[in-house]
Amino acid sequence: MHTPLVFIDGDQGTTGLQIHARLQGRNDLRLLTLPEAERKHSQRRAEAINSADIAILCLPDEAARDAVASITTLNVQVIDASSAHRTTPGWVYGLPELDERQAQRIAQARRVSNPGCYPTGAIALLRPLVNAGLLPADYPLSIHAISGYSGGGRAAVERHEQANPGEVPTLQLYGLELAHKHVPEIQQHAGLSARPVFMPGYGAYRQGIVLSIPLQLRLLPAGISAEHLQACLELHYQGARHVQVMPLHQDGPAKALDPEALNDSNDLRLALYANPAHGQVLLTAVFDNLGKGASGAAVQNLDLMLAARHQA
């Protein structure tokens, strides 16, 4: 039986290194990586990607587009971890939990775009509610998220971990021009007709995301309560291996959310906090930006492709 050859293009970046580590020791695939001297050699990279059964691109956006353009072998499957193709027609969005058929679409696709870290949490919370008609597609959404500094890539990791105390801020918000590249991805795949406000930030810790989206019940369809929102998410993610929906909290003090709670896993934890007296609900997600937000998700999609190849 043919053992699939998997090529990781860009395996020295933050995401690529994590994917490589997660695949070590597996005997159901063969890993192809290039020597350091060949990693920036366009012809050698093109030869590698065309020799692979599945290629995982961990590259800047423009380099990812160039890598895809270099493919001449029809049967090469691609998982692109960059943001280059997340809203591109013809590419399958790599969030298996998007709906009941998405995992099968990913398994059979030739081109899969791995979701962005922040969009993973936002879309997981919003898409089921929009589809069910509980959240209007034109709701004036505001999304706030804090990630560990590894979300800024290898350069950000080195900047934080080589700095002296006080040289890097404890917390920094960015995307203040309200034009973050993740917004079109969130809007498209959450099924929104109105552009959400997205406010990201980096904390002084390595990895992990806490994301929150406030809702006013008075702006939802008449009669919709926190219980309806909770039931919708529970139904949507029933049986989902990597998504946990926590019990609804709307009575008394609540524990603080720890962005590092699911580090080194591929899990996503969703929770709703409600105050019925004020008519307000907070949608929340906690996950590892290097796990379900990047490398873990890529490996999850890879496993779907490998399973389909095994069954073929």
From TrEMBL:
<dbReference type="GO" id="GO:0051287">
    <property type="term" value="F:NAD binding"/>
</dbReference>
<protein>
    <recommendedName>
        <fullName>N-acetyl-gamma-glutamyl-phosphate reductase</fullName>
        <ecNumber>1.2.1.38</ecNumber>
    </recommendedName>
</protein>
<dbReference type="GO" id="GO:0006526">
    <property type="term" value="P:L-arginine biosynthetic process"/>
</dbReference>
<keyword id="KW-0028">Amino-acid biosynthesis</keyword>
<dbReference type="InterPro" id="IPR010136">
    <property type="entry name" value="AGPR_type-2"/>
</dbReference>
<dbReference type="GO" id="GO:0003942">
    <property type="term" value="F:N-acetyl-gamma-glutamyl-phosphate reductase activity"/>
</dbReference>
<keyword id="KW-0560">Oxidoreductase</keyword>
<comment type="function">
    <text>Catalyzes the NADPH-dependent reduction of N-acetyl-5-glutamyl phosphate to yield N-acetyl-L-glutamate 5-semialdehyde.</text>
</comment>
<dbReference type="InterPro" id="IPR023013">
    <property type="entry name" value="AGPR_AS"/>
</dbReference>
<dbReference type="InterPro" id="IPR036291">
    <property type="entry name" value="NAD(P)-bd_dom_sf"/>
</dbReference>
<dbReference type="Pfam" id="PF22698">
    <property type="entry name" value="Semialdhyde_dhC_1"/>
</dbReference>
<keyword id="KW-0521">NADP</keyword>
<feature type="active site">
    <location>
        <position position="117"/>
    </location>
</feature>
<dbReference type="InterPro" id="IPR050085">
    <property type="entry name" value="AGPR"/>
</dbReference>
<keyword id="KW-0055">Arginine biosynthesis</keyword>
<comment type="pathway">
    <text>Amino-acid biosynthesis; L-arginine biosynthesis; N(2)-acetyl-L-ornithine from L-glutamate: step 3/4.</text>
</comment>
<feature type="domain" description="Semialdehyde dehydrogenase NAD-binding">
    <location>
        <begin position="5"/>
        <end position="106"/>
    </location>
</feature>
<dbReference type="InterPro" id="IPR000534">
    <property type="entry name" value="Semialdehyde_DH_NAD-bd"/>
</dbReference>
<dbReference type="Pfam" id="PF01118">
    <property type="entry name" value="Semialdhyde_dh"/>
</dbReference>
<comment type="similarity">
    <text>Belongs to the NAGSA dehydrogenase family. Type 2 subfamily.</text>
</comment>
<keyword id="KW-0963">Cytoplasm</keyword>
<dbReference type="InterPro" id="IPR058924">
    <property type="entry name" value="AGPR_dimerisation_dom"/>
</dbReference>
<dbReference type="GO" id="GO:0005737">
    <property type="term" value="C:cytoplasm"/>
</dbReference>
